[in-house]
Amino acid sequence: MSLERTPQQERLTAIVRRFPQSKVVVVGDLVADQFLYGEISRVSREAPVLILRYERTETTPGGAANCATNLAALDAKAVIIGVVGEDEAGRALVNKLRAANVDCGGIVTPASVRTTTKVRVLAGQIHSTRQQVIRIDYEGQPLADDELREQLRARMRAEVETADAVIISDYNYGLADAEMVEAVREATMKRGIPVLVDSRFGLTRFTNFTSATPNEDEVEQVLERKLEDAAQLVSAGTGLREQLDFRALLITRGSRGMLLLEEGAEPLHIEAVGSREAVDVTGAGDTVIATYALALASNATFGDAANLANHAGGLVVMKRGTATINRQELLSSVLRWGET
Length: 340
What we know:
- By secondary structure, this protein is an alpha/beta fold.
- It has one domain (7-32, 61-117, 140-337): Ribokinase (UDP-N-acetylmuramoyl-L-alanine:D-glutamate ligase), CATH 3.40.1190.20.
- The chain has ten helices and 13 strands.
- The chain has helices spanning 7-17, 64-73, 88-99, 146-160, 178-191, 216-223, 230-244, 284-297, 302-316, 327-337; strands at 23-28, 30-43, 50-63, 77-83, 103-108, 116-124, 131-138, 165-170, 195-199, 211-212, 248-252, 258-262, 268-270.
- The strands form two sheets. It has a nine-stranded mixed beta sheet, sandwiched between helices.
- The chain is globular and about 65 Å long.
- The protein starts with 6 loop residues before the first helix and ends with a helix.
């Protein structure tokens, strides 16, 4: 590795060093990601299925909670606005968030709500690596209490007063409804801070914000057509950015890197860094948008923020499960890989 830094490396490392000065508010659907580990003991006599000898269950923050955890791991002040139930999964999730130094003052826990939980069952022989064999989703119902919804909006408004950026993390579980989206728009427009959107199924509902980070498949789903090559992706993505009235659109492309489409600028194709073979892509999108938003909150250009998000995504997919990266890992990647 060369000891002489490129201009891009100098800019990116300076941005990362400013991360602890920024506060980012995450508004969205909290998910408990559970990993149930078991050892394959034998085949059942009742049906041609494996019997697992239970080993342990681990609960990690998922959805918007994973986004907030990634922000905190990068040393930002992370605040989460969301809902969990008064159940075991909800308590475990909040405990993990607090342990990660995420501000949980914006979480409400009504008795009528069940925590959305995704259970991944991982199985293997006694000395082998555990592999995911099935996922079981326990989906919570949207919060129906209007008073509690207004309480969430009020807490969001209060936190935005001192925030440097906002992330809307929409997993289609109802937190980011029309009233919350409009409240975020009004609160952030007063302060002129960036708002980033990550929406799995409803991106077209989020107009007139700063940027979004869909993957290529999600762009195709929104447009309802297959994009055959990079040129088509540029054309279609540019049209989508204009339709949504975003300043920029960052499209993630897996092993093919990222595509940044910024208003008034040429398309920026960013090659993937690190290994082309991902170990686990679970939650990688949360890492990408957390880094992207935090960089913009730290006064980065869209191009520099996208390059940092690209490094972060390349790092986190090499870790198993719902994972995070820290600032030192990000800095090391920037210095190792140089221009991207």
